[in-house]
Amino acid sequence: MKIFAHVSWLFATLIIATSLTFMIITFHLLPRPYSRKISAWLIRLGTFFSVEVQGKEDPKTQMFLINHQSDIDIVVMETITSRDITWVAKKELFDMPFFGLALKMPQDIAVERESKTSLIKLLKDAKRVIKTNRVITMFPEGTRSTKDTMLPFKSGAKIIADANNLRVQPVVLIRTGKYYNTKEFYYKPGKIKAIFLESFVAEKSDKNWLSDLRVKMQKVYDDELANNPSHR
Q1: Is the pTM here over 0.90, yes or no?
Q2: Which of 124, 130, 142 has its CA nearest to residue 83?
Q3: Contact 68, 139 (CB under 8 A)
Q4: CA-CA distance, 54 to 30, in Å (whole number)?
Q5: How far apart are CA 22 and CA 45, in angstroms?
Q6: How far apart are CA 26 and CA 166, in angstroms?
Q7: In Å, what is the CA distance from 98 to each residue of 25, 38, 103, 161?
Q8: For residue 166, which of 118, 214, 134 has the smallest C-alpha distance?
Q9: Mean of all residue pLDDT scores within the chain
Q10: What share of the chain is helix, strand, coil (3-state, %, to 5)?
Q11: In whole angstroms, what is the distance from residue 77 CA to residue 71 CA?
Q12: Which end of the chain has the smaller Cβ count within 10 Å, N or C?
């Protein structure tokens, strides 16, 4: 069984690599964001997973905040919204061969966590993106969680949202690590659930909105697991 899971993971990874290659080749031939959207759909169709969407996307959203368990989370988000997404990711990912191009070419935002000038650059890049009507999209945990408890949310999302009074919409993804896990070389097809929560305008005066949001997203996640045994 484990060998089959590993072989399936290799197949899924090959599909992902092929689709990213398509994106890189076609990026300058197609209007943004079509090359990335098509690439994401190729991955989703080629790896045989579907997405059940609950709730509605707010067309006025300026920032998506999503919990993070799997590399497939990016594909899920790209295929459930038609909006042009700007991903915020650590700089090390931008420096990776091949995959880094998939972030650099669409001009996503790189974050240097230990750099003293990183905050200034982050805010500058965010303002650039907002002017183009793209949606800043972040995993506020900062890295993938390996369990069903979300990690503490990093302050970067709050800094950007507060500085620009952004309309934020949280999205809760349910157990995506169950379907594609690069650390365990595991993959299986299935139905992933994505839940759009109500959007809100970030207010600098509310110092706790990000930590409160984590509690709210965790409750939605826990309730979904409790009420739907298929996710377990």
Answers
A1: yes
A2: 130
A3: yes
A4: 30
A5: 15
A6: 32
A7: 12, 18, 9, 30
A8: 134
A9: 93
A10: 45, 20, 35
A11: 11
A12: N
